[in-house]
User: Fold this.
Amino acid sequence: MQCGSLNHKGTIMKIFSEIIRKTGHTLQTISQKFNNLKDSGSDQFSCFYPGTQSLFFSYLFNRIFSRIKINKKTKNKVFKLNEQGIVIYTGKYKTLFEFLYFNTVFKKEALPYPEIGFDFNFFLLQPVKKAFKITLWQIIYFFQHLKFKTPYASGYLTTELTRGRSGFVYLIEGDEFYKRFVKSKPDPLFLLIQLQNKISRPVFFVPSAIVFSSKPVRSTPGFLEIILGSNEKPGKIRRLAAIFRNPRKIHVDISEPVNLREFLNRPDIRDLDSVYQAGRLRSYLTDLLNRQRRSVTGPLLKSREELTEEILTRAPLQNFMKTYARENGKTIEQVHKKADSHIKEIAANYNLNIILAMKKILIWVFKNIFEGLVVDEEGLDRIKEDSKKAPLVLVPCHKSHLDYLLLSFVMFNNNMPCPHIAAGKNLSFWPLGPIFRGGGAFFLRRTFKGAVLYSRIFAAYIEKLLAEGFNLEFFIEGGRSRTGKLLSPKLGFLSIIIKAYRTKACEDLLFVPVYVGYDRVLEEDAYLYEIEGGKKKPENISGLIKARKFLKKKYGKVYIKFGDTISLESYIRDKGFLPSQIDENTHKALCRTMGYKLVNAINQISIVTPHGIIAGAVLNSFGNRFTKKELMEKVESYMNILTFFNAELADTLIIDSELAFNTVLENFISRKFIEFADEDEDEIEDTTRFILKDNKRPVLDYYKNNAISYFIPASYTAVAILETDTFQFSSQSLLQTYNFLEKFFIDEFSFNEEITGEYHISQCLKAFMEDGIIVPANKMEDRYNLTSEGFRKLKCFSGFLKPFLESYKTALEYFEKYPEDKHASKDRIKKIQSLGIKMYKRQEIQLKESLSKINYINACRFFMKNGVTGMADREEIARYKEIIEKLLKFTTF
Assistant:
C-alpha cells in the first residue's frame, strides 16, 4: 500500500513538473509574442486609424466626402506643412465625421492627413487582424500589470507624431472635460506642450471646421434644432441631409496654422505652468474656431426684441435717459417710449430667408442688366481671413443704389455673412424698407442736429452690433457721387464707430476700403439732372416700378475690388495714443485723418475702365472736333501714366486694350455722345472725324471722373511745368504751384498727408520722361527740358482741371456780386447756377460740365474757409480771380 502510494505521488510530481515545464514554455511563447506586438507600432492602440480596407466603406466614404468641395486656397494652407513640423488638426467638438473627411480627402490630395485621433476609438473600423492584435496585446498587458495601457502613458502618441504622422484633437466635450478635471485623465494639449518643449520642430495646430449651414446660430433654438442638432453642431441626420440635398452650401474652412512654439513664447504665456498653458491654448484655439465659424455664419443671432431690450436696459443708457427726462421735463416712461420708437426706426431685422430670396432675385437681375461681375477673389479671401480677427467695417465708394446689394450679394455668395449696412432713412419706404432690414440694413437720419436722445440711442445700437461681432458697412462719402469721383469724407458715422471702439465695444476694428465701379451706372440720367441743378427725387414705390425698364438693358461690367484692411487699434497706436487718452479735439483729428486715409485707399484700388479713358480723351480734345488718331494719341499718353503708376485696370484693357477702346468708341456713337462729322461715313478709320455733342459733355464727364484720381498728380505737375513758361525747369521750381493746387482743390480730390508734393512731382517727371514729354538737361542735375511734342501732351493732362477752375471762377463771381450772408446756402448755390448759365452763354466759361452743382458747393466751401465770404473781401477775390485766369491759360489748347 505504501509502495503504491509512493508510486502515485511520483506520478503526480511528474505530471506537475510537466505542467510547469509546458506553462513556462507557453509563458515564454506569450512573452515573445508580446514583445513582437510591442514593436508592431500602430497596431497597439485603436486611436490610430489605418484607413479603411473595406471596399464597401471605401466606396461609401468616397461617395459622401466627394460631395463636399474644398477650394485650392484652403488646401494650400496645409500643403507640405508636415515637412516643416508636426501637424495637429483641431476641431471644436468631437465628431468622427470630420476626422474621416480630412483623412480621406487630404490623403487623396497628397496633403498631411490625420491618422492619430486623440481620445478617439477606431476599434470597429480596424481590420479584423489588427483588432485581434490590439485586443490580445491589451489582455496580455492587463494580466502582467493589472491595468490597461494607454497611448499617453506608453509614449505611443509622441513617438508616432515625431515619426511624421499627423493628429486630430478636439477641444470641447463634456464627458472628456469631466475625466480631465475630476479624474485627472491626460490632456492632449498638455501632452503636446510637453512634446514641443522636448523637440526643435514646431507643432502646428490647424483649426479646421466643416460648416454645414450658413445660417447663424440663434439664441433660442427651434424645435428642429433641438431634435436634429443646431447649425453649429448638427446631428447625423441633419448632416447627411445637408450632404445629399445641397452639398454646395457646405463650406470647409481652415484657418492659418498656429505655431505652438511661437504661442508658448508669448510674454503672457511663457512663464505659466504647463497645465495653465494648456488651458490658455484651449481657450485660444476655441476662440479661433468660433471666429472661423462666424466668418461664414455671422455671430449669434438674437431677435430684434432681444437686442432692443439689451440695448435699452444698459446702465449707461438708463442713466442718460433719467438725466434727459429730468432736464427736458418729461417722465421716464415718456423717454422710454421715445427710445423704443427710435430703436424701431433704426434697427435691422436680419432674416436669412429674406436674404436667400433676394439672392435668387439678384442673380436674375444682374444677369439681365450686366455683362458680368468682376470680383477681386484674392481680396475677398483676404478679408474673410481677417474677419476671424475682429469685426469688419466695409467702406465702399458710393456710385449707385446697387452698391450695397452687390457687395452683400458677393459676400454671401462666397460664404460670408451679409454686413449690417448704414442706409439713409429715405430708403425705409414700403416695401423695400422691410426687405432691406431683413438683409441687414439699419436706417439713420441725414442729420442728428437737435436730436440728442436719437443720437445717443443710435450710438448705443452701433456699440451693440460691434459688441456682438457683426460686420458693418457704411459709405464714407455720405451719399452717392453724382460726379463720378470720390467725394470728401463725411465723418459723422465714422466718429460714432471710433467712439464705440474707444468705449471697448470690441478689441479692434478692421476697416476695409472697397471699390465698386461700373462701365455704366443705372442712375446716369438722374445724376445729370441733379448736377445741372435739378432737385433730387425722393425714393418711392413708383420709382421702383419704373426701374423695371433697366432689366431690358445691358450696362456693361461691374468691378469690385477690396483693399488691405486697416486696423483701428494699430492706427491709433501708431499715432501714439491710447483709446483712454483721446480727448474731443484729438478724436476729431483722428476721424479726419482716418476719413481721408480711407478715401485715399479707395482711390488707390479704383479700377480704370476703357469708358473712363475714352471719355477723358474726348473731353480734353480741342473744341468739340477730333479724329480717331488724335483721340488715340491722348489715350496712349493716359495709358502710359496708368501703367507707370501701376493703376488697377479693367480686365478688358489687360486682355485686348485696342478692342476695348474700339468697343467703347462704338458704344459712345450708338448712344449719340459723339457722331460722325461726315454723315455718309459709317466705318471708323484713323482719319475719321467726330463731333462731340455739347449737351453730352456732362455725361462723359461722369465717366472721366471715375478714373480722374490717377491723373490728378500728373495734372498738377503739368500745370506747374507750363506755368514756368520756359522749356527748361527744375523740379523745385514746380513745388509752389503743385502745393497750391493740392490745397486749392482739397475738397475736390482727397489729400494724402502721408505723401509729399516733392514725391508726387518726382514720380510724375519720371513718367513724363518715359512718355517723351520731357528729357533730362545735359550734365545738369534736377533740370529738365520740355520737348515740342511734350508741350502738346501736357495740355492733355492739364485739361482735367479746366472744368473745376471754371466752376470756381463762377463761384467767385457770386462772392464779388453779393454781400456776406445775403443768401442761405441752398439759395446761394441756385444763384451761382443761374450765374454760371449766363457766363456759359456769354462764353466767359467754355465747358458745359463746369456748370456743376457739386463743384459749386465745393468751391463755396473752399472760399468761405479761406477768407472769401462776400463782396467786402475784394482783395482776396481779386487775388483768386487772377490765379484762376492764369491757370486757365495752361488748360486750354
Notes: The first strand starts at residue 86 and ends at 93.
